[in-house]
Every structure is written in C-alpha cells, then in structure tokens.
Amino acid sequence: MQELTSTFVSRSLVPTTYTRPQLRPKSIVTMAVCMDQSRKEKVVVIMGATGTGKSRLSVALAGRFSGEIINSDKMQFYNGLEIATNQITIPERCGVPHHLLGELPVDDSELTASEFRSVASRSISEISSRGKLPIIAGGSNSFVHALLVDRFDPVTNPFSSKPSISSELRYDCFFLWVDVSVSVLYDYLSKRVDQMMESGMFEELANFYNPRNSRSTIRTGIHRAIGVPEFDRYFGVYPPEKRHNVFEWDQARKAAYEEAVHEIKDNTWRLAKKQIERIMMLRSSGWEIHRLDSTASLRASSREVWETNVLRESVKNVKRFLLKD
C-alpha cells in the first residue's frame, strides 16, 4: 500500500469550464469502475454547520492523505459572490485540487440534487482512478444524501416530517462532523458576518444587484444565497452607487443597512441550526458519523488547540479507515 502521507502531484488550480452534466459518463469513469466491481470506493465526508471549519479541515486532511476535495455546498458551486458564499480562497486551498467549486455561471438555473449526484460521482471516480482520496466537504446535506445513498429518489425529501433516509450507501464512507456548542457558534457567526461586510461583502452585493431580479418572487440558484435577498430589499430603497461613504448616510439609511445585516445574521443562524438538525437525522438513521468537538478551538481562535482537538483526532481516524480492508 502506498504511503498514506505522500504528497499529491501539483495540478492547475484553475477549474475546468463547467457544463451541465451529461448522464453518459466519461470513459475514464467507466474504466475506473470496471477495475474492481467488488470493492466500494473509499470516500471521506466532512460535515458540519456553516462556520465550523469544514474547509480548513478538508484541506489539512487532503495534504496528509493525498486527497482532492469535492465541494458539496450548493451556493459555492456558482462562480460569483465569493465573499457572501464564503468560498475558500486560492491561498487557503494550499495547492489542493478542488472540484465543483465556483464553476456554474451565476445566471444559470439551480443545480438539482440529481445533477449533483451525477457530476460528483464522476469526480469521485476520476479522483479514485488516479490513486487519490476523494474528500467531500460542504454544508448542503441534501446534496450529500443524494450523492451517497445507494438508491436515490429525486422526488422524495429525505428530511421531511417523515424522514426517508437510507442507510445503504454506495461508497465506503468515513464521516467527520465538526461540531461547536450552540452559544459559541452563535457568537462566532455574528462576528463573522461583520467581518465579511468589512471584507467587501457590501460592495460585492451592490455589484451583483439587479432590480429586475430583485422583484421576482421566486428565487433560484445563487439568488437564494444569504445576503442577496436581504440587501436586494435595501438596494431597492437605496440603489447602489459607484462611490459610497458610510459617514455621509442619514439615520434612515444607516438603520436600513443595520436591519439588512441583522437579517443576514438571523438567517445564517437558522441555516446553521437546520444543518445540525439534518446531520443528527442522518446519524439517527444509521449513518456512522464521528463527531469532533471544535468548541474550544473556535472560542480560543487558536491553531494549536484546533490541531490538538480536531486535526489530530481526524488524522488518526482517517488513517485507520484507509488501512481497513
């Protein structure tokens, strides 16, 4: 068996141009699948609420286990609003290849769970055929479920009031759940929204704003991303300007801005709670999900604490998983 910690061969960081998935697989996928029909491909899946550090952990593990990362966050699939959707930056990727990240045009229609199952499974086969480890990372648990279950029904909502979550998976999966206590995560997400606004999210949303789209009652794709509807309402009253000076705003405009930011914080927290609830539903349905407590590292903002509490435990368990027949 190859050394688990061998480094991957450097590849271009520029993603290939994305086109809507063709259901007929590429030849390399067929070859990879036919190599050994009796063994399932090994896949590591990193789960967690928004802001818990899934991307950070995925990059660290990919560097140690010669892995490549497949994005499973439906908003990060689009090429745009990198700050609002909190896409991992090129420097933060540390040279690790990322797939299905920032590839879909912003004006394209919403990617369905069936389409994600098709393109992501193709990525898994291609990565595995090169002797690399596929690592799934992202917060869209409906996409994760669609990708991994052996039998997928696109009509049924597996997370409905009567859950229909299957425990039969088509890959040999190891699940890592990066979890943070409710109080610490709530405070962190509120501060993160403020940091995102300071980092240019307001300007990004202003450039993205389109009065025609904002009047639509039905939102699809990236237009559903947290931040877009909240500031569409704001820009409907205060249209974007090429230059703006917060200190020149009147009280009404400042209040409208603060209300939009407050709504973003509330909706981000609702998303986090929904993600945690769905992970717990998957766990109670038979998915063997290993929980990692990242509360101390997030509270302390300490890399040392994170490496001790999260990374070291993850490396130990993933190594055991990969060595297992």
TrEMBL record:
It catalyses: dimethylallyl diphosphate + ATP = N(6)-(dimethylallyl)adenosine 5'-triphosphate + diphosphate; dimethylallyl diphosphate + ADP = N(6)-(dimethylallyl)adenosine 5'-diphosphate + diphosphate. Its EC number is 2.5.1.112. The keyword Chloroplast does not apply. GO terms for molecular function: AMP dimethylallyltransferase activity; ATP binding; ATP/ADP dimethylallyltransferase activity; tRNA dimethylallyltransferase activity. Pfam families: IPPT. It is an enzyme of class 2 (transferase). GO terms for cellular component: mitochondrion. One of its GO terms (biological process) is tRNA modification. InterPro entries: Dimethylallyltransferase, P-loop_NTPase. Keywords: ATP-binding, Cytokinin biosynthesis, Nucleotide-binding, Transferase. It comes from the Eukaryota. PANTHER family: ADENYLATE ISOPENTENYLTRANSFERASE, TRNA DIMETHYLALLYLTRANSFERASE. Belongs to the IPP transferase family. This is adenylate dimethylallyltransferase (ADP/ATP-dependent). It comes from Brassica oleracea var. oleracea.
